[in-house]
Design goal:
Elements lengths: L12 H36 L2 H35 L1 H34 L8 H30 L9 H5 L4 H30 L3 H22 L2 H15 L1 H8 L5 H24 L8 H22 L5 E3 L4 E2 L13 H29 L8 H28 L8 E3 L3 E2 L24
Antiparallel strand pairs: 1-2, 3-4
Helix pairs in contact: 1-2, 1-4, 1-6, 2-3, 3-4, 4-6, 6-7, 6-8, 6-13, 8-9, 9-13, 10-11, 10-12, 10-13, 11-12
């Protein structure tokens, strides 16, 4: 059997890798974000002497410990599948990023050791709380460093550096590494925050004891601060990432923004609109329970909700009448029928910037109210459903973003690349015009 010809029945090897990678990312992103959130919460509990922060931090740390085994198993399965199904491609990546993979492995090992130690010595270090908090932040640091190593590889696959493959520094710091790393760094906290808020809402609706209702009401608020606070930064960071792709891999940019896969960007905007409007509505609702009445701030928040809906709507308008050609959703003359309000400049820019400005404004006035204090335990059912909606939608957002980035290299399968302009989907090596300067002999010797 020729190397690399192995396939997976029914599902196919491309879909198999996609499912394994996406599932692993959903686990790993939550773990990385949750560890930092838990460590920060423990520190807040130490400083403010409020037991709810300590209870939350310990519960979240316990969940991370239970989740870690599943995330690690998925990572190992993905690597084995990649080696087996795409051996030529993996051999090339291993040659370029051997030291990066090695560092990532030790960062992952360090994260496992510190996370388990952090949770297991919680009671033993109860009187040395500062040291214990440091353990949590060190675990978070290892996770972020492991993510950074993988981001170097992922960004290189879409925008390989215009330098010889042996130049590790240029390969690592390729054209989209920094914006991708920023995008995922911020995204981890927003993703974890929304999931925490959704879980808290579900528990709040099921709780019958008053103290539990107060705790889960507060927990939903705390998760939303993280979730919305970081997610609202994504429009400007995402723009920077798209700009880097356009400059380095213009054909890939055209696929996801102007070609048959442009609907993926509109779908992302649908998810962002839902999360933005639901989050602002939740904050507006919570202001009713402020310890000190804030009618002026509430009225300003009502206006902000209207503006968030308006700016979100601008982002939802497609640029042309070819909505989802794969499903036959094409009207009039398709791509030739342009929709003026759907153009990137200036309407999409206005929509994205407007969402971010309104979001930051609402978050600022909400944090001002938070400093005054809230009455907990009286939130309405619809506000909790808003939190759970955000939790579901943020998962869909992660999946859509992953699909959008990875499908960009396929160039509608004409020819489609595993490594942009270097290695095709059939693992055939491009000998001319490859930005990385790949040559067939470079993949003969294996890793190292």
């Amino acid at each position: 059997m020729p190397i690399g010809d192995l396939d997976v029945p029914v599902l196919g090897k491309n879909a198999t890798i996609a499912v394994l990678v996406q599932t692993h990312i959903l686990f790993a992103a939550f773990i990385i974000g949750a560890v930092i959130i838990a460590a920060t919460s423990e520190y807040m509990g130490m400083v403010t002497k409020q037991p709810k922060y300590e209870r939350f931090a310990r519960s979240l740390a316990r969940f991370v410990v239970l989740l870690f085994a599943s995330g690690a198993a998925l990572a190992i399965t993905f690597v084995l599948a990649l080696i087996t199904l795409f051996p030529v491609f993996f051999s090339y990546l291993q040659n370029i990023f051997f030291w990066v993979f090695l560092v990532e492995a030790f960062m992952f090992l360090g994260q496992i050791i510190i996370v388990y130690a952090w949770y297991n010595v919680w009671d033993k270090l109860a009187y040395r709380k500062s040291l214990h908090v440091v353990f949590g932040f060190i675990a978070g640091f290892f996770g972020l460093m492991a993510m950074t190593m993988i981001n170097a590889v992922a960004s290189y696959m879409l925008t390989p550096a215009e330098a010889p493959a042996t130049d590790l520094g240029r390969a690592f710091l390729n054209q989209t590494f920094v914006p991708l790393n920023m995008h995922r760094f911020v995204g981890n906290f927003g993703y974890a925050g929304f999931l925490i808020a959704g879980w808290a809402a579900w528990r709040y609706l099921r709780s019958v004891r008053e103290d539990d209702r107060e705790y889960y009401d507060w927990m939903g608020h705390w998760g939303m601060i993280w979730g919305f606070g970081f997610t609202i930064l994504q429009p400007v960071i995402g723009y920077g990432y798209l700009k880097a792709i356009r400059e380095s891999s213009p054909e890939a940019f055209n696929v996801i923004m102007l070609g048959d896969k442009a609907w993926t960007f509109n779908l992302l905007m649908v998810w962002m609109a839902i999360m933005g409007v639901a989050s602002v509505a939740y904050f507006l609702h919570r202001l009713r329970f402020a310890v000190r009445p804030m009618e002026t701030i509430r009225k300003m928040s009502v206006g902000a909700l209207a503006f968030m809906a308006l700016f979100s709507a601008l982002n939802l308008i497609p640029s042309n009448a070819s909505l989802v050609p794969q499903l036959g959703l094409v009207f009039a003359d398709g791509q030739d029928t342009l929709i003026p309000l759907g153009s990137m400049y200036p309407w999409k820019y206005i929509g994205l910037i407007g969402m971010m400005i309104v979001g930051l404004f609402v978050l600022a006035i909400y944090l001002k109210a938070t400093a005054e204090g809230f009455h907990w335990g009286g939130s309405s059912r619809w506000s909790q459903w808003a939190l759970m909606t955000c939790a579901v939608v943020v998962v869909l957002t992660m999946i859509t973003m992953g699909y959008t980035r990875e499908t960009a290299r396929r160039l509608d399968d004409d020819p489609g690349y595993l490594l942009y302009n270097c290695i095709t989907m059939d693992q055939e090596i491009v000998q001319e015009g490859c930005p990385a300067g790949v040559a067939p002999e470079e993949v003969q010797g294996g890793g190292g």
